[in-house]
TrEMBL record, chain A:
This is Cytochrome C. The keyword Membrane applies. Keywords: Membrane, Transmembrane, Transmembrane helix. The chain crosses the membrane at residues 6-24.
TrEMBL record, chain B:
One of its GO terms (biological process) is anaerobic electron transport chain. This is Menaquinol oxidoreductase. Its main location: membrane. It is found in: Cell membrane.
Length: 127, 330
């Protein structure tokens, strides 16, 4: 090989970068864990089925905000016919007041930083 | 022709995963085995290609220069476009790798009535290429949030920057919009400009369609058919920790996305995409133009057998003396 030294160094750096997740994982050394959002309410149903809420709650909250703030509509008719007030603080947080144990579980796990709390006041938790 | 072949190749790839996951339930194959195989192929193939290239000798400094060479102190030389030192070469390489400087010089040749030859301003290829590569890099780095736990702050910061305008929720990534536009432009350019269509091969179209399919499946997963991201991260972290598992309930769209990226990785070392490594080995970019300052010997020069005059005289001294020829040494 010509200029072998430089090329080998370049290759080693490249492979180091490509395999970053592998050695980062080894270095952090913690056991694999899946997030476990804790549900503390006695209510049987949310405003939409669980599968939908798990994947699309952020889209729903966005829609709610637009409807409330721009159109002044405040009542949401759920899939099961029940009526709810479209409100993060008053509806969502009523059943899920535990932000750290509920919201943050998945958000931290996948590195999402929702901007809900830019405007809303974060719930004070007593633990 | 090449475009159609490539298009159907990508369609077939998508169909394979769809049938494989939905009908045959080969989730472990598409979620674990193929990604591992693709990564191994990528790394081994990449090293193999680079080593082959590294074995070709570069006997002489190939000087394609765009500026004044270093000579007399009173002639101003161009350090970046005609570097004579390592620092200048590093500067030129950085400009080439990060900003595609040589592509920036691209012009369009036109034969006008007259007949008259004209070189037209043409920066669109450079712009689309630059924007495409940078947004691809941002997307790649952003994806590390699925492969790291805890997610490094820098990756979250990059993601925040990418979703800066907070359009919609999940917020629109600028890189997603930009890469779709750039890939579309790069494809249309090949199809609509006759000269470029003439020189375009399946090997040019295939990566474009593959990347388009990749981006499209990603965009669909994020903005339209939302998928269970937590389950996907569990799968990704299992791969990273070498303890693979396939969580339930992941949409087939994810397997399509993962398979296309696996194909891209496995195809990479055997394709033109190897310009990722090749750009660093371009002799016209990475060699200082110091041919007149330093002697460069051809590395494959073998020792030439010579017979000097002194040796000749030693050999024939007696005969030369006898013939009365003048001698250097008596």
């Amino acid at each position: 090989m010509y200029d072998g030294g430089k090329i080998v160094v370049g290759l080693v750096v490249f492979i180091g970068v490509v395999t970053f997740p592998l050695w980062y994982r080894q270095a952090s050394g913690e056991a694999l864990r899946a997030p476990e959002p804790k549900i503390v309410t006695d209510a049987k149903e949310c405003v939409a089925p669980t599968d939908y809420m798990r994947a699309s709650h952020q889209a729903m909250l966005n829609e709610w905000r637009d409807l409330v703030v721009r159109d002044g509509m405040r009542v949401y008719v759920a899939f099961n016919g029940q009526e709810h007030e479209m409100s993060l603080s008053n509806t969502c947080m009523k059943c899920h007041p535990n932000k750290v144990e509920f919201c943050d579980q998945c958000h931290n796990y996948i590195g999402v930083v929702p901007y809900c709390w830019d405007c809303h006041i974060e719930p004070k938790e007593s633990n | 022709m090449g475009a159609l072949v490539s298009f159907f190749a990508v369609v077939v790839l998508v169909a394979i995963v769809f049938v494989g996951v939905e009908a045959a339930n080969l989730r472990y194959l598409f979620g674990v085995i193929i990604p591992y195989a693709a990564l191994i192929t990528f790394i081994a193939g990449f090293i193999y290609r680079i080593v082959i290239w590294a074995r070709s000798p570069v006997p002489f400094r190939i000087t394609t220069t765009c500026g004044q060479q270093k000579s007399h102190p009173w002639i101003k030389n161009d350090i970046l476009d005609n570097p004579h030192s390592t620092i200048g070469v590093i500067g030129r390489m950085l400009l080439e790798v990060l900003l595609f400087r040589s592509l920036f010089r691209n012009t369009r040749l036109e034969l006008r009535n007259g007949p008259k030859l004209a070189y037209e301003w043409e920066k669109w290829l450079w712009l689309a290429g630059l924007v495409f590569h940078w947004s691809f890099l941002v997307i790649l780095v952003r994806h590390l949030r699925f492969f790291t736990e805890p997610v490094p702050v820098l990756i979250q910061a990059l993601e925040g920057l990418d979703a800066f305008f907070q359009i919609g929720l999940p917020a629109l990534y600028l890189s997603d919009a930009v890469i779709l536009a750039a890939v579309t432009y790069l494809f249309l350019r090949r199809v609509l400009i006759p000269e470029i269509r003439y020189i375009s091969l399946a090997a040019d179209y295939f990566p474009l369609f593959l990347i388009f399919g990749l981006v499209l499946s990603g965009v669909l997963m994020r903005y339209f058919v939302r998928v269970d991201v937590v389950a996907i991260k569990e799968l990704a972290m299992g791969l990273v920790a070498f303890r693979p598992s396939v969580p339930e309930g992941i949409n087939v769209l994810f397997y399509i996305h993962l398979f296309l990226v696996s194909v891209l990785f496995a195809y990479f070392p055997f394709s033109k995409l190897m310009h990722l490594g090749g750009v660093f080995l371009s002799p016209t970019r990475n060699l200082a133009n110091n041919n007149r300052m330093e002697r460069h010997t051809n590395p494959w020069n073998y020792p030439v057998k010579v017979h000097t005059y002194e040796e000749y005289e030693d050999e024939f001294r007696d005969k030369m003396k006898a013939a009365g020829l003048p001698l250097e040494k008596e």
